[in-house]
Amino acid sequence: DVKVTQSSRYLVKRTGEKVFLECVQDMDHENMFWYRQDPGLGLRLIYFSYDVKMKEKGDIPEGYSVSREKKERFSLILESASTNQTSMYLCASSQQTGGRAGHTQYFGPGTRLTVL
Amino acid sequence: RKEVEQDPGPFNVPEGATVAFNCTYSNSASQSFFWYRQDCRKEPKLLMSVYSSGNEDGRFTAQLNRASQYISLLIRDSKLSDSATYLCVVNKVNTGGFKTIFGAGTRLFVKA
Question: In what order do the strands lie in the sheet with A4-6?
């Protein structure tokens, strides 16, 4: 079974704090993703990575950065947290193949971040 | 206009009912299609892929109409445990690989 874990289920931070969200997958997947999910807006892609040390901006990268130093780990960083970054953050991973199976994304349990 | 659009619902149905969800996508270059299920306060999980010929998995049937850029999910004989949010997902080829786009989801409540 694919397992994607995230460092925290719930996190409360203050405006201006630096926040680190960690994600680890144990299936040797090449692709990793960070999304945020807000009511009525669905899942929005923040950043993704196809390989170690590689990153690509998603649809809403502003205010975020990422780090992928090891294949199994993808970190999301909020340099200076703001109240509009209060959200559910979901990490996902997938294989990098040409077939359909390679496009299935496996999600972590999510981190509910509240910025006060 | 969103790239993937779904009726947000909620759909409230009694146990045993048949319910259908629709999803439209705007990019004709989209290549593969999926339905994910997300339970309350849980992460999304793949429910089924959607093939052009249509496919069935037990009580669930998925259909794709490329000409109309339309995807559907039919649930027969609804169970209480089917209560969840159903996400329509589309993959399209993008520079450097592919891009996955999630719909905002359709909420289903199945009542006894």
Answer: A4-6, A19-25, A73-78, A64-70
For A91, half-sphere exposure in the C-beta direction (CA atoms, 13 angstrom radius) is: 28
Q: Is B98 on the interface with A (CB under 8 A)?
A: yes
Tens of pLDDT along A57-104? 999 999 999 999 999 999 999 999 999 999 999 999 998 765 544 578
> Would you say residue A108 has pLDDT above 80?
yes
User: How many CB atoms are closer than 10 A to CB B90?
Assistant: 24
- What pLDDT, on the 0 to 100 scale, is given for residue A99? 53
Chain B residue at shortest CA distance from A105: B46
Residue B96's pLDDT band, with cuts at 50, 70 and 90, is: low
Mean pLDDT of chain A: 92
Which of B38, B43, B45 would best serve as a mutation to test chain A binding (most A beta carbons within 10 A)? Answer: B43
Alpha carbon distance A109, A42 (integer Å): 16
What's the pLDDT score for residue B93? 73
Provide the phi-psi class of A100: left if phi over 0, else alpha when psi is between -120 and 50, else beta. alpha
If you average pLDDT over residues B91-99, what whole number do you get? Answer: 72
Separation of alpha carbons B71 and B3, rounded Å? 13
Which chain B residues are Cβ-neighbours of A56 within 8 angstroms?
A: 96
Put simply, the chain B residues between 38 and 97 with a CB less than 8 A from any chain A CB are: 42-46, 49, 87, 91, 96-97
B34 touches chain A (CB under 8 A): yes
